[in-house]
Amino acid sequence: MNAHLPHPVDHASGFRAIRFNADWITRPLFGIALAIAVVASIFGGTGYIAAFAALLGVGAAREWHRMVGERVFGPTFLLSALVIVSALAAEATWPRGAVGWEILAGGAVIVAAYAAFAKLLPAWHGAGPLCIAPALLAIVMLRDAPHGAVIIVGMFLAIWATDTAALIVGNLVGGPRLWPALSPNKTWSGTLGAVAAAALIEAGYVAFIGGNAIEGALYGAGIAVLAHAGDLAESWVKRVFRRKDSGGMIPGHGGVLDRIDSTLIAAPVIAGLVLFAGFNPLFGVHS
User: Fold this and answer.
1) Nearest 5°: phi and psi at 212?
2) What one-character-per-residue DSSP string does the chain give?
3) pLDDT per residue over 203-242, tens digit each?
4) How far apart are CA 102 and CA 129, in angstroms?
5) pLDDT, tens digit, for every residue of 27-75?
6) What is the pLDDT of residue 133?
């Protein structure tokens, strides 16, 4: 049964409304475990990161198709999972080629066609692999770029800083909500704190590897904006289908889709800038 969402109010209560719960323990523990797994796969090489991305993609696809109206492990999920895994395998086998993207595009059409045949929601089901896989493919593509592992780690540091600061600052400060009708838990204070935290973390990271810290700070702030955009896009889908979380697979974090939503826009944009526009997100560190 779908979780009914509370009616949003214009302001969050802030520090006075904070109450201890199990998420205080499970969220950081599982967050650290996920971060270690991500970093290990990044430095393990293209095959490892593609395999880890495929695992996340399958989990996210399961949640997507259940959220938009199919039973758990139904045919549209199985088709989407096959499409996502095949696209990532193609990208790992033929790096930075078109095969993976062709598999993704053709596979999405097949998923939508089956959904129409099954009298489901073809547009929503077909959108599943198209919403999930581009970020995963983008990360695998970035891994093969010069300094790819270092670039991806920098991106994730800014995204993790964004997510963490938005939660902490939003809960401590409260205040006006960012977009109550779309995402009742997000506040302007959390959003601004997230941008500041991402800028600070990215500046420190870029300086540490020998780049320009000021440019790194601007880059980090930009990643935070893109991360929020992905988060809000997923929140919109959940509001359409009256879901509070996409799932509960990751204790303290909700579903896999909830965990990767910040990369859905950020990763493709960064990969496009690096691979096709010659952008150097290390700001002074050259190939």
Assistant:
1) -85, 120
2) -PPPPPPP-SEE-GGGG----THHHHHHHHHHHHHHHHHHHHHH-HHHHHHHHHHHHHHHHHHHHHHTT--TT-HHHHHHHHHHHHHHHHHHHSTTSSHHHHHHHHHHHHHHHHHHHTTS-HHHHHHHHHHHHHHHHHHHHHHTSTTHHHHHHHHHHHHHHHHHHHHHHHHHH-EEEEETTTEEEEEHHHHHHHHHHHHHHHHHHHHHTTS-HHHHHHHHHHHHHHHHHHHHHHHHHHHHTT-SSS--SBTTTB-HHHHHTTHHHHHHHHHHHHHHS---TTSS---
3) 999 999 999 999 999 999 999 999 999 999 998 998 899 8
4) 12
5) 778 778 888 999 999 999 999 999 999 999 999 999 999 999 888 789 9
6) 98
Q: What is the residue-wise DSSP string for 202-233?
A: HHHHHHHTTS-HHHHHHHHHHHHHHHHHHHHH
Residue range 124-153: mean pLDDT, rounded: 96
Q: What percent of the chain has pLDDT over 70?
A: 88
User: What residue segments make up the domains of the chain, in order of their start?
Assistant: 9-19+146-287, 45-144
